[in-house]
Each structure stands twice: as C-alpha cells, then as structure tokens.
Amino acid sequence: MTRRLMVLGALLVMVPASAFAQAWPTKQPIKVIIPFSAGSATDVVPRAILEQVGKQIGQTFVVENRVGAGGTLGVREVAKAEPDGYTLLAHSTTHAVAPATYANPGYDAKNDFAAITSLVSLPNVLVVPPNKYKTLKDLVDAGKAKPGSMNYATAGAGSAAHLNAERLLMAANFKATHVPFKGGPEALNEIMADRVDFYFVPLPPARGLIAANKVGALAVSGTNRASALPDLPTTVEAGVPNSEYNFWVGMWAPANTPKEIVDRLNAEIIKALADPGVKDKLSKLGADPMTMTPAAFDAFVKKEIDLNADLVKAAGVKVN
What is the pTM of this model? Predict the structure, then answer.
C-alpha cells in the first residue's frame, strides 16, 4: 500500500499544472473580494460583468465586500488566498495608490497578484452640495478666500478619490481638509447634506443624484470628457491645468495562480464585455470598456503604482 501511494504521489508530481488548470472551474462558488462598499463604482461595475461571465462558464461568482483600511483589508485577504482561481480581487485605481499611502498594507501590490485584465475606465466627477457652486472656478475661489476652511470627502484614506482631490488642490494652489468615509454612498450622503464641500466620485453612484439635482457636478477629472456627460468640462477645460486624474477598474488573482486559469478568465471577461446586455449596463453607468492582456495589464498597473507614488510625494499626502 505504501509503495502504491508513493507511485501515485510521483505521478501527481509529474502532472503539469496546466492539466489542473484546464479543469477549472470544477467547484462553486468563485469568490470575488471587492474592498469597498456595495453601491460604489468599484462594486457595481464588476457585478454587472461577472453575472455574464458566470453564465458563460456555468459557475457562480459570489461577491464579498471587505471594507476597511482604505481598501487594503480586502486586498490583503486575496494576497493570502490559495492561488487556485477560486478567490479573486476586483479593485480600482486605488490599488495603485495604496502602496504609496500605506507604509505596511500587508501585501506587495506589484508582486503578490496575477493581473487578469482591466475592466473599464470611468469618469471621476467633481460633485458639490446642490446649488452651492456653479463652476469649478467658484469652488477654487471660495477655497482661496478662506484658506483651510474647506473640506473634501473620499472613500477612505489612500483611495483614488483622495489622490484625485490632492491633485486638484496642488494644481489649483489651495488647501482643504480630508474627510474619509467607508465608501462612496456614505460620502455622497454628506455632500447632499452640505456637510462636505466637494468629492471626486466615480460616475455610477452619482449619476442619478446629478440628474435629480441632489448634488451639483462641476467637472470630470479625466483626460477627456465623459461620454455619459458630454456637456461637463474636464477640470483642465474648467481652468485648472495639470489637474487630470484617470480612474479605472480591474481584476486580479493571487500570485502563482496557473497561467491557464488567468488566461481563461481574461478571455471570458473580454467576451462578457462584448455582450450587448453588459454593454448596455455599462453605458448606463457611464463606464467605457477597457481590456488588456494579463501581461499588458500587469505592466500598466506597475506604471500606475509608480506614477501615484510620485503624486503622493509631490502633494505631501500623509503616509498611514
């Protein structure tokens, strides 16, 4: 019996990882960690796409929102998960910000993950309390008139919204106090109640509020105008040079996940993004599909990490 077990063990060692990967997925569910609250852009976009991916592969994706510590809590969980394709991460630009704003996030953003693909690019919209400021110039003038009196919301210290706001403050040369929240919905509530002066929020959770005039929209932060808000200027067009900041959402697996699994996920996600139903959902969210090969996305993220580190240093953002 012992000899048989030894032979069996030797045979298993000889079986290439690709053989196991080809069988994926063989069990349910596939868990997807999202490190921000339900209803945030980082949450609603992956859900819309993964529902279709689940149909394509005949498996269930279970989304778990792990909020806290500026998103690093959920990311840390994925970094430590088994690299078997059954625990994945859906995250945003914030994944490339945290390495510069957290001295010890509990993981290595460049090396502890296998990049799958980017999903979408989204406009970050500069929102303010309703009927308070008509233009970005009005906001900047108010901030300069009473230095230090203004505040801004984010979905947590070290989030993309945090860096987006700091880029505007640095470019426009005025100061404001950072007020972090657990997620986008909470921050929007404070904007509507006029307890916070401004917030750079990804479009999905704010679009209905903008349409209903429950929040005001002054500009978008990206390099180009948003297709969903064509009449809204970019922050640069609104008079603040060097203030652009782009927001995207993507997916990762733990490092050492078999390449075949990563490639399969990449292919299925790209297929899902071409589905008319998914395209319609994303269009309503104001999101533009943005796909890459795993290698290209890995290189893109590493470059974004370096760029955000430079911005954190230049803006003097406090490291946690």
Answer: 0.79
